[in-house]
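Q: How would the structure tokens look for this protein?
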Amino acid sequence: EVQLVESGGGLVQAGGSLRLSCAASGFTSDDYAIGWFRQAPGKEREGVSCISTRDDNTYYADSVKGRFTISRDNAKNTVYLQMTSLKPEDTAVYYCKATRLWVEYWGQGTQVTVSS
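A: Here is the predicted structure in token form.
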């Protein structure tokens, strides 16, 4: 069964850090580009960061550049999103997505809440 499972969300004070994990099963994640997205209440889902296949190029939304770092551990079939200097506006449900050609898989999401 193909699955993406996010974990690591929680409640943190502004300025704090969290590390999200996106664990893949049923497929080899390094064959896929992996993206992190987030959706705050009443807002559209937006792209946060992504990492390409093989060459591990990384991309970040301007709102998180310099604060978030995406990385992958192919041995664990897992992609991470290290989030530092968190702000209340980072509060959202965070999702990961795996994409290869016309195939995509989504995880179920993990809640991140940043208190001021």
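The chain has a mean pLDDT of 94.

The longest strand covers residues 92-100.

Upvote if useful.
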